[in-house]
Amino acid sequence: MNIGDKIKEQRLKKELTQEQLSDLLNVSRSTVSSWEVGRNYPDLETIVAISDLFGISLDNLLREDTEMTKDLSKKMRWNKYYKRILLVIGILALIYVGFNTKLRMDEKHYLKNLAVHSWEQDDYRYSGSYALEEDGVLYTTYIIETGFNPIPLKEHNPWVIARKDKLVVEVKENDKRYVVISKANDPKVKYDATVEVAETGNLIKSDPSWSDAKEQSLKAYLKKYQKEYVELLKETVNKRKEIVD
């Protein structure tokens, strides 16, 4: 005997109509009818309610109905999967909110420090740009607006570019120093490149794609203006610290 037959049997024993049973279980009459003819099955919560209403155990109610047992087991497994999926979504949402909150706090901190040190908004270059001119050096930085943004988290850390005459340098996260060697800045330059340098102004590593001539030319240019680059990078590091500290 399947569960539909047992529900009908117990209903008749209680002298209940399908409509009366549906009212007691908070379902429609057609739903009760579907159970009794075997078109579908009640869910787990309703099965428990039926068990309590008729005073029979779940074991007796489900016994012999292998299809119902399989269907119920399947639903229970999917219910576990859904809970796990919801848990993962919840964790990801918390991580996103946490990172976004951190970014908003950092953004406010950076903007406050820019104002304290007299940086001016420079949106005519691009949105989020700030500039400061001091002792013949033009410093620029960019504050990425917080929000849903595909830009990696590390890129939200401000970098600072400094330009003094034909010399251009960049200081990025962890005070990494870069020199921008470009024909646009100095027509005498033979090769364009942005190279990472040490505090001493010396090249840290070569690019495998460089020819020997290019590498020697870049090293010679760094050597020629080594003193100026070291001083400019030192000041640029300090300017970045004023923003992020």
UniProtKB/TrEMBL annotation:
Query: What protein does this entry describe?
Result: Transcriptional regulator
Q: Does the keyword DNA-binding apply?
A: yes
Report the source organism: Enterococcus ureasiticus
For whether the record's keyword set contains DNA-binding, the answer is yes
Membrane-crossing ranges are 81-99
Which key words are in the record? Coiled coil, DNA-binding, Membrane, Transmembrane, Transmembrane helix
Coiled-coil blocks: 215-242
Q: SMART domains this protein is in?
A: HTH_XRE (SM00530)
Indicate the segments forming the HTH cro/C1-type domain, all copies.
Answer: 7-61
UniProt-recorded Gene Ontology molecular function terms: DNA binding
Pfam families per record: HTH_3 (PF01381)
